[in-house]
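Standup notes
- HV: blocked on the assembly model, inputs below
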Amino acid sequence: MLTDRKELDARLSDTAGTWLDDALAEAAHAAAHPGADSGPLPWELRFAAAGRHCGRDHADSVRALLLVEARAAPSTVTRLYRQGTAAERRAVLLALHRLDLGPAAVPLVEDALRTNDPRLVAAAVGPYGAAHLDAHGWRHAVLKCLFIEVPVETVDRLGERARGDAELARMLRDFAAERTAAGRPVPDGLRTVLALTAPAPAPTEES
Amino acid sequence: MRIFDPHIHMTSRTTDDYQAMYDAGVRALVEPSFWLGQPRTSPASFFDYFDALLGWEPFRASQYGIAHHCTLALNPKEANDPRCTPVLDALPRYLVKDSVVAVGEIGYDSMTPAEDTALATQLQLAADHGLPALVHTPHRDKLAGLRRTIDVVRESALAPEAVLLDHLNETTVRDALDSGCWAGFSIYPDTKMDEDRMVSVLRAHGTDRILVNSAADWGRSDPLKTRKVADTMLKAGFDEDDVDKVLWRNPVAFYGQSGRLQLDITTPDALHEGNSILRGGE
Ligand SMILES: [Zn+2]
């Protein structure tokens, strides 16, 4: 979903490319001088303005690059998410696994999973969510995707985390039964996930 | 017919309204932040509201194929409540957001010293952020209020062409246009301004720098008034190009001064199958 620097450079106009160079330099400066300024840092204002300077389609990628370049700490990431538009929040979520945050950003993922905005939910079930959500939170995230029609293929490490998860399988079957009882279609992705919950084959003798 | 409603409070409207607006030709709108009917008691409730105008409401609008932008400000009424005025200090971090196309609604309600301060401060904020300003004219003592508003605009760092004076009527349109500002008319189901009177104003004053909005909110109002004005204009002999100018090109030109209008609608990826607004099963 995110475009790397090289590809971005090829796609951005000269003006936007220069804007991005300047923004990344400001972010690098902030990384090198932590705590030097008070108030919103210049790169954070660029983070907010990315959509109109680089184009809405590139905003996620540009914002992610800025977060990485600034080596954003958990406090910064949390503030940018809390004070962000839906587009800014989505970019924060998409970048989390590229930052050195440990589990500190899990509350942001949980916040996104409480929304009904599929763009935020889809971004919350990326690599960071896959690595840090506990079993209960992760199962509910998968169910939420089915509810609001975020394609289950969006869920990072789906097969790996679903394998042998009997509780997830139960939740999926109950959900399917509820839909069937209501005369409503069962979401396409449900059967896909249910198949993935089958236990791993038992190890064979020779392995 | 394409319609841009330059002033409507969608937070107070239903998804049926969004659908009806789309069916009537509305493809873009601006939602100014304003008073909620129930007074707020702290800056935090403004911030939640601003966040909704920058997050949830554009998402709702996009589900119906409508581009949503907003204007943010401390409104004139609540500028009088000292519990709310700290909002002014927090506005700079909101005014940098991509979908903010003006500072507004600002202006006068009862013409108090607190309103003077809030208006002047926020006109300066608009100038500092390269944004135009949406200035509401008071409902009571309108002409005096308009003249005082124009004086404050003249003393500000903002050029008159970056200011939209709203809720005008027959008695205030001349002064407003003479000031060099844009002139906005809110069309309501009863008192303030109706379609036929609007068409008379257009006949008398032309179509330059004139915007028409529904200002629909939580009170008695009609989100389809923009379309009704368009139809009344056509019946009265204006042509399609006049309608397009008043109901699309003029608002685009005014808010376009922000450099932030995004009028192509992309529905969220996850919803490519044409889902309507979701309840999330909750
Ligand atoms: Zn209003």
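- HV (later): unblocked. Confidence is low (pLDDT under 50) at residues 268-282 of chain B. The interface with chain A takes residues 51, 54-56, 58-59, 92-93, 96-99, 259-260, 262, 266, 268-271, 273, 275, 278-282 of chain B (CB under 8 Å).
- Next: hand off to the docking folks.
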